[in-house]
Amino acid sequence: MNWGSAAEFFAMGGYAAYVWGSFAVVALCLVVECLAVRARRKRALGELRRAGAAALEGRT
Amino acid sequence: MNWLKYSSPQAFYPLAGRMLPWFAGAAALFAAAGLYVGFFVAPTDFQQGESYRIIFVHVPASWMSMFIYLVMAGWAAFALAFNTRLSGMMATALAPTGALFAFLSLWTGALWGKPTWGTYWVWDARLTSELILFFLYLGFMALQAAIDDPRRADKAGAVLALVGVVNIPIIYFSVQWWNTLHQGASVSLTRSPTMAATMFAGMVLMVLAFWMYSIAVALARVRAIILERERRTDWVQELKEVAA
């Protein structure tokens, strides 16, 4: 175990800004990418449903 | 098993959907293990103190940025040579993830460079060629976005992706070919790694996590692309997630 306390862990031996700045931005980017892909899928499905509904109306 | 069967978007769409949770789950498990080893098992570096822990995201992001480019160019070449629809979609699906990892490689590299070299950025061979990789991804995406016909966009993008492949060995060997601030490879196939075993283990776990993540997110994105491009086909309109 490297850390005597939680405070020591978060301080990262004085390099907190660099270490947490790296890990936080990586985590943030991956989460945003997942949300973007999910939004893209929802948008595609929404357009398909609208097109399907329009086609049905056109038929009647 | 007939793999060619899965080269059609119609067959690949449900297959990708079934594979997705496995890769996503593996990514989460590897990341949890890698972060644990990286922060709690791997010792403090005697030269760099705790700042070296950036390695656990920097190296995986950098490797993936290069590897995804090769895979993307491979799919693009396949699409160009055989005119297969799915391979073009795979290349398109990989580009944003590759661009993201190239950006993260530069970002984490800058934050690691400041405490170790005293500067966020230098125009040296390794850093500059990685920046060019980032721009190649952006160029590929912008070019594809600028062409309305997806098949033509695939072809134009493929040519750009293939020309850009020349940059990958330049990045990889830059630390040998030129004098650079960036350190040489810590890991190579020909000799044992020049770091503590637990540091190396943490890095390998994080590489695996990033690898699984990349596959999962690319599969998810290619499914969305299939829905967009195949929207006029009967099979898409009959999907239960569309009919619902």
Entry summary:
The complex is a heterodimer of chains A (60) and B (244). Chain A is mainly alpha-helical and 60 residues long.
Structure annotation, total helices of chain B: 9
Largest β-sheet summary of chain B:
none
Mean pLDDT of chain A: 89
N to C succession of SSEs of chain A: HH
What is the topological layout?
The complex is a heterodimer of chains A (60) and B (244).
Chain A: H1 6-11, H2 16-59
Chain B: H1 9-41, H2 55-82, H3 85-117, H4 125-146, H5 150-164, H6 167-177, H7 197-229, H8 234-237, H9 240-243
Helix pairs in contact in B: 1-7, 2-3, 2-4, 2-5, 2-7, 3-4, 3-5, 3-7, 4-5, 4-6
Written description of the protein model:
The complex is a heterodimer of chains A (60) and B (244). Chain A is built from 2 helices and no strands. Chain A is an all-alpha fold. Chain A is rod-shaped, with a radius of gyration of 23 Å. Chain B is built from 9 helices and no strands. In chain B, helix 2 packs across helix 5 and helix 4 packs antiparallel against helix 5. The two termini of chain B are 32 Å apart. Chains A and B meet through helix 2 of A and helix 2, helix 3, helix 7 and helix 9 of B.
